[in-house]
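ok so I'm stuck.
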Amino acid sequence: MKHVLVIGIMVVALAAGVTRAQSPRSGEVQMKAAQQKAEVEGDLKGAIDEYKKAIALAGNNRGLTAQAWLRMAECYQKLGDAEARAIYERILREFGDQTAVAAAARGHLDNQAGTAAAKAMAARRVWDGPEVAEESNVSPDGRFVSYPAWQTGDLGLRDLVTRTNRLLTNNGYTDNQYAQGSAFSADGKQ
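replied:
not stuck anymore, here's the structure
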């Protein structure tokens, strides 16, 4: 009976030691499980649930918590869910001291802003003529397009406002000289 009691105490002590040993690592283990689900299995919704569990198990480990929030936001972003933005903003508010994670969150927010701006832009044809070529170049203010006038070998300039063309050179293919490319000055005056 005495041996059974000693063995029972040893089993309880051993189990407590194993639990204590696993406890700090359980958040990390959960994090790996979430990454496995997201990256290998491609189950983003399941990964979000796993990241939530990792956050709950992380305790005072701010680095792990911030990393789990970031990965969860990336899953939401891949799913096209607006929740991603809210999480990125939360990371910046609450985990600014986690510099790498905060920088990644800021990058995602900046990228989302750039994507929204790109979607707001619309492409439209402003000029379509025989003069348009790969070598054409748009002025910094967007008003002019320089182009090689292949018929004469000269450099031409198209005014997109007045819709007129004019030649800037008058080579006429003399001495095998012809305009092929051009560039505007940074201030757009030349």
